[in-house]
């Protein structure tokens, strides 16, 4: 089985002690989603594939009336995670941002509508910046280990820069576009 980055995301979350698909997804939402997201539709099939490949094992762990599986790394899974972490291969940088994709094509809009798009993107950037400061950084600061916090600080710095960039872009476009009659 060839492991993908999402495979290593799951192995890493299990290594951090998150034992169920739901716990993995919840942890992703609180940490890596800003640079590596995963949906439940990805987590559960990936857990099944990792189990089939011998990287994880599961046990039945019902929660009330709901069936549930708890997962843990096997020695093979721990070795795969360790090998990936130590790999000298520099991974490709992947950046996917639908808002930036819309901005790329915004010349197809009248300037007033393009400015509204920028305002929405700025508002979202401001929201993410606040979320990092209020939720993500405190969670990372409380977590064991040093590198969770380092990654969270990089994210906070990036989203702070991004919010400022959108604020400057919005001001530049607003100066250029002065609606008639205002």
What is the mean pLDDT? Answer: 92
The CATH fourth-level homologous superfamily of the largest domain: Winged helix-like DNA-binding domain superfamily/Winged helix DNA-binding domain
Number of helices: 7
Stretches with pLDDT under 50, minimum 5 residues: none
| Cα distance spanning the termini | 63 Å
In CATH, the topology of the largest domain is named: Arc Repressor Mutant, subunit A
Percent helix range = 55-70%
What's the gyration radius in Å? Answer: 21 Å
Q: What's the level 1 CATH class of the largest domain?
A: Mainly Alpha
Subunit arrangement of the protein: single chain
Number of strands: 2
- Strand arrangement across the biggest beta sheet: 1-2
CATH architectural type of the largest domain: Orthogonal Bundle
How would you classify the helix and strand content by structural class?
Answer: mainly alpha
Structure write-up:
- This protein is mainly alpha-helical and 182 residues long.
- The protein has 2 domains: 5-86, Orthogonal Bundle (Arc Repressor Mutant, subunit A), CATH 1.10.10.10; 98-176.
- Helices cover 63% and strands 5% of the residues.
- It has 7 helices and 2 strands, in the order αααββαααα.
- The protein has a two-stranded antiparallel ribbon with strand order 1-2.
- It starts with a helix and ends in a 6-residue tail after the last helix.
């Amino acid at each position: 089985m060839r492991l993908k980055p999402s495979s290593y995301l799951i192995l890493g979350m299990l290594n951090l002690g998150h034992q169920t698909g739901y716990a993995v997804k919840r942890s992703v939402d609180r940490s890596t989603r800003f640079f590596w997201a995963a949906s439940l539709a990805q987590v559960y099939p990936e857990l099944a594939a990792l189990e089939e490949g011998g990287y994880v094992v599961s046990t039945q762990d019902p929660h009330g009336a709901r069936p549930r599986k708890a997962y843990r790394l096997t020695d093979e899974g721990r070795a795969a995670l360790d090998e990936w972490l130590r790999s000298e291969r520099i991974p490709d940088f992947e950046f996917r941002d639908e808002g930036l994709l819309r901005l790329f094509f915004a010349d197809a809009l009248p300037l007033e509508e393009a400015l509204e798009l920028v305002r929405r993107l700025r508002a979202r950037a401001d929201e993410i910046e606040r979320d990092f400061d209020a939720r993500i950084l405190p969670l990372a600061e409380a977590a064991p280990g040093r590198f969770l916090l380092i990654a969270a600080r990089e994210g906070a710095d990036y989203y702070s820069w991004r919010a400022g960039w959108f604020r400057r872009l919005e001001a530049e476009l607003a100066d250029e576009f002065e609606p008639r009659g205002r």
